[in-house]
Every structure is written in C-alpha cells, then in structure tokens.
Write a structure and sequence with these properties.
Layout: H1 13-33, E1 43-45, E2 48-50, H2 59-73, H3 76-89, H4 91-94, H5 102-118, H6 126-144, E3 147-149, E4 155-157, E5 165-167, H7 174-182, E6 187-188, E7 194-195, H8 197-211, E8 231-235, E9 240-245, H9 257-276, H10 278-283, H11 287-307, H12 346-363, H13 368-381, H14 424-441
Antiparallel strand pairs: 1-2, 3-4, 5-8, 6-7, 8-9
Helix pairs in contact: 1-2, 1-14, 2-3, 2-5, 2-14, 5-6, 5-7, 6-7, 7-8, 8-11, 9-11, 9-12, 11-12, 12-13, 12-14
Length: 450
C-alpha cells in the first residue's frame, strides 16, 4: 500500500529541474538521429530506442515530448522541431480510421501546439492556430466514427481489435471528442445525420465505467472495487456484453496496472473538463448522474491503486502476475525493479501519479490522500533508480514495460525479468507530469488538454 507522507509540490522542484536538464539533450539527440523511415520509436533495447508496435500509436509522443520540454524550459529549438515534424508527419493520424488512439497522438501534438499558441507562448499566426483546431476537429470526428452500438442503447469507440472490443485506455481518447465538440464540430453520417461528439464521448465513458471497472457488487467471483479489466467483449450482432478480456495484462480477472492508469487519468481529466464547462453538463442527458459516475469510477480506481501498489507508489505490471506470490509482503515495501520474479511498470506509475493529483485537486479537501499518493509516486520517479541520468541511454524514465505476455520487453543478460528500459509513452507522461507539477508550484495556469 502506498505510504502517504507530507510531501509538498515545492519539495519536488529540485528533482524537476534535474529532470528537465537531463531530458533536453536526450530529446534533441533523438530528434537529430531518429530515421522516420524506421517507423516510430516505441521502447528501448539496451538503452537505444527501437520500433515495434501494432500501430504507430507513439508518433505523437515523439514530437509532443519536445513541445512539453519547450513548455518547461523555453527551448525554441525543440519547439521548432516538434512543430515542424507535427506538420510534416502527423496528418495521416488525423484521418486514421483503424485505431482508437486519436486522443494520444493528436492531442500530444496539435493539442499542445494549440494550447501553447492560446497561452501566447509561441509566435504562431492566427491561421496556424486555426489549422491546429481544424486538425483536432477532424481527429475527434474520425475517432467518434469507430462506433459499436450496445444493447442498452449506448455504445463505445471500439479498439483496433475490432467492433467487439472495448479497451479501458480508450477513455483517454475521449478528450479529442469533447474538445472537438467544444470547438463546434460534429460528425456527419449517412443522410447528413448530425452526430454529437459530446454524446458519443459520454456514452463511451459510461460504457467503460459500467463494463471495464468493477465496484465490489458481486458482478463475478473476482469483483473487487476498483479492479479494471483491460478489455470488454461484446456480441456485435445484438450489442450484448459477453465477458472481460485482456491484451497486455496477465488475465481478464486481474488488473493490468497501465490499463488502470489510463482509466484513472482519463476520468480525472474529464472531471476537470466538465467542471470548467458546466453548460455542457446541463446539455447531457442525466448530466449530474454522469458526473457522479465519473467521480465514483475515478475514486474506485484510485483507491484500488493505493491499496495494490508498493509503498513508494510504483506498481508491478499486473496485480495478478504469478511471480508476485513468491515475493512475500511486496506491498509493504518499495517496489523492486531488480528482482527475479515480476517487473515493475514505471509508465503505469507516472500516468497514475498525474491522475491521482488531478483527482485529488478536483475533490479538494476530500482528495488529500490522492494528492499525497501522487506526490509520493512523483518523488520516487524523478530520482534513482527511475530517472535515466546516463546520457548514453536514450530514455528518460527507466523500468517501463510494454507487452509482458508477448515477451517484447528486453531482459538484460543475467537477469530473469525486463528492467532498465524506457518507453515513449512513459517518457512523454513523465514530461507531462513534470510540466503539470512545475506549473502548480509556480501558481501558473493548470496544464489541461483543452
């Protein structure tokens, strides 16, 4: 269980400064040396980024990292590089009909560029800012078109596995739908039918909270409050729910911790968005009920994370991973990246830390334990053994896991489990968390996707 302490955000400032100082040269080097013909970097092997993925879902993180580093440090070279590569390479992602990752790829790039322009941080013209908004509107509509109707009258954005598949991580892609809606965009279907992007986002989120998140209500023999199934399977003939499943977790009845992290952060960001857009809540059918569902789901996942994570805030890759049974009271001590049984996943930790902080700040006095848990995890991650201070290693955050069941993660010689490597999503979310904290410490405008 995460050990809560009295860390204050300002206590992390020296670690954040060290992190940004380390990150800048690495990001500049990767920008210079990576050959786009190789695809997109996904995770490191022996400290060098390699490309391997089902889709190019990490390309937005590649350029988005540079934009976040500029946000924190004012490095114009990385801003210019991130902007140029976004405009040169990201257009196909806007109309990619085969993936559920629009809220990752396109908000990391066009979304950050729009935000920086709106904040007056860049010299981008009004026309360029409108181009960013057009890109986000297109992306939101294309994402919303990946629709599977359910028997209860709702529906969901299906994953790249097919129309039967609801992934918990797609909840974070709903950001692109609500943002596009707030910009006045709609999806136009057959016979010019206008389809609300807001309604589709709300229906998808409600489906995720109903089918992928558990609440301790005896839904099945493994129904523990806050447990998350990576995937839910539906019968596409009639839209009925069939069973839980997983792609990257250990089993449908355990919790893949990065899946929980995506769900937690996605819910916390939506709570912030709707808090700042009360008129949209009023326009949603059962709007107040929906917000309560969002809050209840986020708190259930947060509580499960606190109870099933070691004391320093870094989880193992899956709460049911079989090797954990050989590790004794592993939840009563800090996580151990160098063990012989199961890997930790720092990327799950850094995503969850941001979710915990956002949820805690949203809840105010009731959310203090979540804020402290988020700060505990951040304090751990921005220091050894997770901070990648060796400039020869291309990653920023060590001990990230990609796909343990498929065996895609590098196992160092003489070791039994993956360790010591980085992922592009882990690095991106470390930068995002660091920017969020730095703004919080300085009393600046909070970092949001909208």
């Amino acid at each position: 269980m995460i050990a809560l302490s009295n860390i204050k955000p300002a206590d992390l400032m020296p670690s954040l400064d060290r992190f940004f100082a380390m990150a800048g040269p690495k990001l500049a080097r990767l920008a210079r040396e990576w050959d786009p013909a190789k695809g997109t970097p996904v995770f490191t092997c022996r400290g060098t980024y390699t490309s391997r993925g089902w889709t190019e879902w990490t390309q937005g993180f590649l350029y988005g990292c540079r934009l976040l580093q500029f946000d924190a440090t004012g490095d114009e070279t990385l801003l210019n590089s991130g902007r140029a590569d976004t405009l040169k390479y990201m257009a196909p992602h806007l109309t990619h009909t085969g993936v559920h990752d629009h809220g990752f790829n396109n908000l990391s790039t066009y979304g950050n560029l729009r935000r920086l322009a709106r904040e007056g941080r860049t010299s981008d013209s009004a026309d360029l800012a409108r181009l960013y908004e057009l890109a986000l509107c297109v992306s939101g509509a294309v994402q919303a078109s990946r629709w599977t109707a359910t028997a209860d009258g709702g529906g969901f954005i299906h994953s790249f596995n097919g129309p039967q598949s609801l992934f918990v991580d797609t909840i974070r892609s709903c950001r692109i739908l609500v943002l596009a809606h707030s910009l006045g965009h709609v999806l136009v279907g057959e016979n010019d039918r206008r389809i609300s992007l807001l309604d589709r986002a709300v229906q998808h989120i409600r489906a995720t909270l109903m089918y992928n998140v558990y609440y301790g209500k005896r839904r099945d023999a493994y129904d523990v409050r806050g447990r998350v199934a990576h995937e839910s399977i539906f019968n596409v003939k009639d839209g009925t729910y069939r069973c839980p499943s997983t792609q990257q977790g250990y089993s449908p009845f355990s919790t893949w911790t990065r899946g929980l992290a995506w769900g937690l952060l996605g819910c916390a960001e939506q709570l912030e968005f709707f808090q700042d857009h009360p008129a949209l809540v009023a326009s949603v059918e059962e709007g107040k009920v929906f917000i309560k569902e969002l809050r209840d789901g986020a708190q259930a996942m947060a509580d499960f994370y606190l109870s099933n994570t070691p004391t320093d805030g870094v989880p193992y890759w899956d709460t049911g991973a079989p090797g954990l049974s050989q590790m004794g009271a592993y939840l009563d001590r800090p996580a151990e990246p160098d063990n012989a049984h199961e890997p930790v996943d720092s990327s799950a930790a850094v995503i969850s830390a941001q979710g915990l902080l956002r949820l805690g700040n949203y809840l105010g006095k009731r959310g203090k334990k979540y804020v402290q848990a988020g700060l505990t995890a951040a304090n751990t991650l921005f220091a050894a053994p997770y901070l990648s201070e060796d400039q020869k290693h291309q990653g920023l955050l060590l001990h990230s896991i990609y796909h343990r069941p498929n065996g895609w993660d590098y196992v160092p010689e003489g070791k039994k489990i993956p360790q010591g490597e980085s992922s592009l999503w882990g690095d991106y979310h470390a930068l995002e968390l660091a920017v969020y904290l730095k703004r919080l410490i300085r009393g600046q405008q909070i970092l949001t996707f909208y």
